[in-house]
Amino acid sequence: MDIYLPIASLSVNGLVIIGLGLLTGMLSGIFGVGGGFLTTPLLIFYGIPPTVAAASAASQVTGASVSGVLAHGRRGGVDYHMGGVLVVGGVLGTGLGALLFDALQRLGQIDTVINLLYVAMLGSIGGLMAKESITSLRAGADGARPVRARRHHPLVASLPGRWRFYRSGLYISPLAPLLLGMFTGILTMLMGIGGGFVLVPAMLYILGMGAQVVVGTSLFQILFVTMATTMMHALTTHAVDLVLAVLLLIGSVSGAQLGARFASNASPLRLRLVLAAIVLLVAVRMAIGLTWRPDEIFTVAAL
C-alpha cells in the first residue's frame, strides 16, 4: 500500500509506517516512555529525511500524550502549577530551538546535527540504563528497591526566589523547572522527541518531585510543548508531514494498549535491561550511518 508523503516528497509503504508506529507504541506501553526518541531514528533508517522525521514525530507525540494526561489528571497525578512553569520554559525553548534549527538548516548541517544528537543522547542514556540494570540483577534486586530519600539538587536550592508547589511537595525557585523546560523544548524542536526520557529523571533527581506526580506532570508538559513544536515547525521549517504523522499515530495508539498488557506480566528490571539494549543498538546503527561510506555518493546543490 504505497502512500505519497507530500512534505517528504517520496512514496512509502503505509503499512510499514503504521508498523513503526505500532512498535514505538508498544515500547511506550511496556517501558513507560513516549517512544518519540525511537520514532525519529526508525523513520531515518526507513529513508525519511531527518528534518521531516523529527518534525512529524513531534506531532505524533502530541496525539499520544493526550490520553495519558487525562488518565493521570483524574487520579490527581498532575501538578498543574509545576507543569505550567515547565510549559512556559518549554515554549521558550522551542523558540530558541527554531532559531538554532533554521541556522543549521541554512548551513546545510541540520541532518548531521540531528544524527549526532541522537547518537550522543541514546548512547549515554542507554549505557546508564544498562549499567544500572546489570548492577541490580547481579545484586539480586529484581523486586522493590529501597526508596531513596527525596531531595532536590543543591544547585536548585541555591537559586533565588522560591515558590510552593503543593502537589509536588516542593518549596523551590521556579527558575529550576523553567530552565529544565527550556532544555527539553530545544531538544523537542531539534530531535522530535517528547523529552520524557530526559524530563522524568531530572524531575525526580534534580527537582526532587514526588514519584506519584512525575509521570503525569511530564506528560502535561510534553503535550503542550510538542503542540508548540509542531506549530513552530509548520510556520518556520515547513517540515511537518501530516500524512506521515497520522499513519504513525494510528499504529502508536494500538501499540500502546498491547504494550501495557504485556508489561503487567513482566519483570520491570528485565524490561529496563531490554530497553537499554534497544536504545544502544539504535545508537550504534546511527553512528555507523554517520561514518559508513555509501556505495554511491551524490550531492544536491542549489543552482
TrEMBL record:
Membrane topology term reads:
Multi-pass membrane protein
Instruction: Give the stretches traversing the membrane.
Output: 12-38, 44-71, 83-101, 113-130, 170-198, 204-227, 239-263, 269-288
Signal peptide range equals none
Any one of the GO CC terms:
plasma membrane
Compartment(s): Cell membrane; Membrane
Read off the Pfam families from this record: TauE (PF01925)
Subcellular location, principal: membrane
The UniProt keyword set, sorted, is:
Cell membrane, Membrane, Transmembrane, Transmembrane helix
Return the PANTHER family for the record.
MEMBRANE TRANSPORTER PROTEIN MJ0441-RELATED, MEMBRANE TRANSPORTER PROTEIN YTNM-RELATED
Family per UniProt? Belongs to the 4-toluene sulfonate uptake permease (TSUP) (TC 2.A.102) family.
Q: What is the protein's given name?
A: Probable membrane transporter protein
Q: Which organism is this protein's natural source? A: Novosphingobium umbonatum
